[in-house]
């Protein structure tokens, strides 16, 4: 969890450096380019971020550990080939992407094209890093993901982008230089991820393991039948998070795209926290569901959701309260995004209140339903974006993303309950929600009503709310099961 918070925080700092160093239009081009890069990398993984956790867990739980090696090869080889293909496609398509997203700033097209091509070269490294770290999580080892992705990559990105920012004291700011600085950390992290994946595989390999061709063929078929729908769902899920930046650039211009990307940066911070919790419980949830232990699965889901609400709802509520001041961190030009921040924060309250519901649905074997839900949500966001961005700019994109978030969480929430009788609203979730609303919603509203909504009044509100929240969490520690955060009291063992 600490690693996820660090990654999210460094992401905010990197965004701040880019926003303050580059002009508004050039910052919009940078955010559009990185959005295209993340989309391509997500497509290259072919949904294996779920398959390479689910299938190793299932093989171990069903006494077929001798198939772990073939399982990893089945998942890894197509990712390598497809990521190389996508890198070539993005390189070739870079001029067209630049012309579409920088139509209002023709002077940006050359630099935008160069930045896209720099990022294209790193697509295989990004995809391979994520998949290799997924392999380690499939062996129930979270440490490589935390140390290499959350800590090392994020810290190196902050360092390299900071150096790029410092270089502008002597030379003009350059989008390709910032793109290279942002992507370069994937190289050392990919090498270290490969070493970590090989080590956990060799440690967990049964002595004398072998398999026949019929077993491998059957596993390949079953692996991709499970993973195939998830591949489309994973791409659509990433599109939900990133395509809006590209649409704002294409329909509204690079300036509004920069405002929207900056305003929504806190959403990515919260998604990192959600991802960290999801990855922590994913292998155990997969084992519980693969063996039919619904009670254990429900407990894990509710426990993780309670923690997610406890951590993220205060952040969302504080962002609503401090929206103009939060945006000034990125520069005075970005304060127009205050309504965008507040719309997204309300949507994130709903999304995090449902927990990692899409992952639960996938682990329950309902990947086709998951795909349908994400496609519905993607249709909602694209439809609303096309309709609203020309009229409202960045706020229209925020409305589109908010509608998609609601659809993408409420649909699987109903499906998980109807099919598996799983839901996230345990006693810990309810306690965390009420505590957060009381301390960071109602209490600041009352304090600022008396002291005003200026900096002094807001600071006083937080000074009152924070200790009350901490005391409340301590008093409710049993209901919130905070002891399960410790190394000895693992979520699986908490009772």
UniProtKB/TrEMBL annotation:
A GO MF term: xenobiotic transmembrane transporter activity
Keyword Metal-binding: no
Transmembrane segments: 29-55, 67-94, 114-135, 156-173, 179-197, 223-240, 246-268, 307-327, 339-364, 371-389, 395-417, 429-451, 457-476
Broad class of the protein's primary localization: membrane
Annotated keywords: Cell membrane, Membrane, Transmembrane, Transmembrane helix
Annotated localization: Cell membrane
Pfam families, A to Z: MatE (PF01554)
Protein origin, superkingdom: Bacteria
Classification via InterPro entries: MATE_fam (IPR002528), Poly_Biosynth_Transport (IPR050833)
Gene Ontology CC entries for this record: plasma membrane
Protein name, per record: Multi antimicrobial extrusion protein MatE
